[in-house]
Amino acid sequence: MSHVASEITSQPETWRRAMELAARPGVARALPQPGERVAVVGCGTSYFMAQSFAALRESAGQGETDAFAASEFPAGRRYDRVVAITRSGTTTEVLRLLEQLPPGSRSTVLTTDADRPVTRLVSDCVVLDFADEQSVVQTRFATTALALWRAGLGEDLTRAIDQARTHLATPLDPAVVARDQFTFLGTGWTVGVAHEAALKLREAAQMWAESYPAMEFRHGPISVVDSRSVVWIFGPVVPGLHDDLAATGAIVVHEEIDAMAHLTTAQRLAVELAVRRGLHPDQPRLLTRSVVLTAPVA
Known about the structure:
Blueprint: H1 3-9, H2 11-22, H3 25-30, E1 38-42, H4 45-59, E2 65-69, E3 81-85, H5 92-99, E4 106-111, E5 124-127, H6 140-152, H7 158-168, H8 174-177, E6 181-186, H9 190-205, E7 208-213, E8 229-233, H10 241-246, E9 251-254, H11 259-276
Parallel strand pairs: 1-2, 1-3, 3-4, 4-5, 6-7, 6-8, 8-9
């Protein structure tokens, strides 16, 4: 079994531990407080989780929350707190952003090790060491950070954990595995999840994969969907979408389960497709665990 396959399987347990961690007073104080104006930043997978973080917090009525790729953070804006997500704690764009925050800024990092460069640049740190990974392809750290965030917002993830356990033991659909084009759709906080699912297929299996907010899909992208395609929907199906998809010949994947639990199946699909294509899912082409830049960022 590859590292990433083992890490995918471990997610129900890391989510459970994240729920317990979120209940600790010190962690609760490190996370954004109600009413704070917050920016959440990350790179790659962490950026997509930032999008989900922001949507969840705003929908919970906790305060204005924006998500940015760390390299695109608007330096002129002022926030009550900046939250950074970084598995490695060494990603150049995240470090540079935190270094440039005004003196006295409140900042929090979610990472895997308290002894990483990023922890010296923030006022608060939440360590998810039990969710660290050996694989380059990130799976459980991202979803565990999301589980911590959701638990911190007051959600009970017991049902999502049970659903994930069930789906991790369910064989993949051979008809889905046989397709070679994949589009992932989401609404609200599941848009970030859809982006992350598509990224897993691109990273691990070098597959043709796209992702969109569900309502945007009919504004052009649907034109490339055909009998080679799978359209995978996280969260509720927007009105009329099933009818539109019926004319494409695509397989439609949708289940009435928690989006994090459904994401574990997409992660497993990425690993299966990689193996079928003769690729090593732990060693994606041109990628490393952390992007550390030596040249100045323009």
